[in-house]
Amino acid sequence: MNKPGRMSEPVLSIRGLRKCYASGTEALKPIDLDIRRGEIFALLGPNGAGKTTLINIVCGTVNPTSGTVLVDGKHWLRHYREARTRIGLVPQELTMDVFEPLISTVSFSRELFGRAPDRAKIERILRDLSLWDKRNNILKDLSGGMKRRVMIAKALAHEPDILFLDEPTAGVDVELRRDMWELVRRLRQDGTTIILTTHYIEEAEEMADRVGVINKGELILVEEKNALMQKLGRKVLHLQLAEPLAAVPSILADWQPQLSDDGNTLIYEFDAKAERTGVPSLLTAMRDAGIAFKDLDTKQSSLEDIFVGLIHDQRDRQQAAAE
Questions:
Q1: Number of other CB atoms surrounding residue 301 within 10 Å
Q2: Whole-number pLDDT of residue 300
Q3: CA-CA distance, 213 to 43, in Å (whole number)?
Q4: What angle do CA 112, 115, 116 make, to 5 degrees?
Q5: Are residues 157 and 263 located together in one domain of the fold?
Q6: What is the Cα–Cα distance from 220 to 225, expressed in whole angstroms?
Q7: Regarding beta strands 258-260 and 265-270, do their DSSP bridges make them parallel or antiparallel, or are they unpaired?
Q8: Residue 167 near residue 197 (C-beta atoms within 8 A)
Q9: pLDDT attached to residue 5
Q10: Which tens digits make up the pLDDT trace of 187-204?
Q11: Average pLDDT of every residue of the chain
Q12: Which structural domain range is residue 285 located in?
């Protein structure tokens, strides 16, 4: 239960967290990040970006080179036992005793954190994850998707109020992914803070309140998801031409449109928030040039478009600094 007056304070406060290996590889550059109580925070990044390293340090399974983490204001290493009780982790790798019955391994996870046995609580978790009918099955006999659900059940067994999900839907089918999204929403409604790492852009777009983008160990952006979409999102105008073009006419060069679909579609990208989008003047120039179109539509750029753009911008900055 959250204490009165604590709702506005971050439930996790990360300062200067860094990981450098003996080889000199800097897996995590100094990171500052606050996680709000009760939010869903999505950490996006390509494979090897540092997502799992960050999670493992916060969860106490990897030692940082420097930096601190506060869990509700308490140092996560000096108050290690309390921090681990507050935090649940669903790791990327499936790790469990494959010869144990499902219900036994989940019950053991609860008691491992000092919680009293509670069969009703375990039953509720298993039912929420559609695992109750499989409760007596040996783990090695379950499908990959079911094993992923068991990992979530194990993480939830001790009733943590902060839950880390490291690539929770990697390698599972679309239906199971949707089920897990629904479970995450229910957990948030119950007051659980969710931090998930993912490279599935639609996962963040579907669920997150805020989005962080990490690449090469550097946290390059943290933003409210909706604000990010509005601030960085661009629109793309597709014009289906009445006659195909072999090349973009020089009269349209100021707008830098692109041709696709064998010259049958003209594509123009613009900033929807700009005072002058360029769309009316482009259409006028096309009319003056005798270029007719039979249909048009606009599409808002997705979070994936924004993500790719941020990664490219970071790469360009790093290349420019190296020159």
A1: 17
A2: 67
A3: 6
A4: 115
A5: no
A6: 15
A7: antiparallel
A8: yes
A9: 44
A10: 899 899 999 988 777 788
A11: 87
A12: 234-300
Are 87 and 76 within 8 A, CB to CB? no
- CA separation for the pair 135, 131 (Å, rounded): 6
* pLDDT tens digits along 133-160: 999 999 889 888 888 889 989 999 999 9
Residue 247: pLDDT over 90: yes
CATH label of the domain that carries residue 278: 3.30.70.1560
Domain boundary among 212, 230, 248: 230
Q: Quick count: other Cβ atoms within 10 Å of Cβ 80? A: 13
Strands of 87-90's sheet, edge to edge? 87-90, 162-166, 193-198, 40-44, 210-215, 218-224
The burial of 117, by beta-carbon neighbours within 10 Å (0-12 exposed, 13-18 middle, 19 or more buried), is given as: exposed
Residues 11 and 1: their CA atoms lie apart, in Å, by: 13
- CA 216 – CA 305 distance, rounded (Å): 19
Q: Give the Cα separation of 191 and 86 in Å (integer).
A: 13
pLDDT over 60 at 48, yes or no? yes
User: First-to-last CA distance in the chain?
Assistant: 53
Is the CB of residue 300 less than 8 Å from the CB of residue 274?
A: no
Q: How many structural domains comprise the chain?
A: 2
